[in-house]
Amino acid sequence: METRIDTMPNRFTKRLGFEQALHLKAAECWLALGKIEEARQEMTKITHAHPDVSHVQKKIDAEIRYVRSLISDDVMLIPYWDSDSETRTE
Questions:
Q1: Tens digit of pLDDT for each residue in 25-80?
Q2: Of 3, 38, 39, which Cα lies nearest the Cα of 20?
Q3: Fewer CB atoms < 10 Å away: N or C end of the chain?
Q4: What is the C-alpha to C-alpha distance for residues 84 and 75, in angstroms, rounded to an integer?
Q5: Would you say 16 and 4 are in contact if contact means Cβ atoms under 8 Å apart?
Q6: Is 2 strand, coil or helix?
Q7: d(CA 63, CA 68)
């Protein structure tokens, strides 16, 4: 069973297989939830070149560039609740 999800129909565009279409949809959903790494993992499971795959990959890349622009030099920020070890109760 195959499904076609491309936005601009083209008779030369090969259809995505069902499993690959599910991975593409999962990547879109992860991206909508702000889970960039999960979206990237779903995209690695797609082996077929397709316009929709390229489109979602560009969205993921743009999101990564945006996050990197917010965090200068890709420095991992420590959450404020971990900064004061004296207030922890163990």
A1: 999 999 999 999 999 999 999 988 888 999 999 999 999 888 888 776 656 666 66
A2: 3
A3: C
A4: 19
A5: yes
A6: strand
A7: 9
DSSP state letter for 73: G
Name every residue whose Cβ is closer than 8 Å to that of residue 21 and which is 6 or more positions away in sequence.
2, 3, 5
* Structure tokens belonging to residue 90: 């163990």
Task: Kindly report the pTM of this predicted structure.
Answer: 0.62
Position 1 confidence tier, pLDDT thresholds 50, 70, 90: very low
- Report whether 6 contacts 52 (CB < 8 A): yes
Given a contact cutoff of 8 angstroms between Cβ atoms, the answer to whether 27 and 60 are in contact is yes
Question: For residue 49, what are its two tokens?
Answer: 């070149």
Q: What is the distance between the alpha carbons of residues 4 and 13, in angstroms, rounded to a whole number? A: 10
b/e map 64-83, b = 16+ CB within 10 Å? eeeeeeeeeeeeeeeeeeee
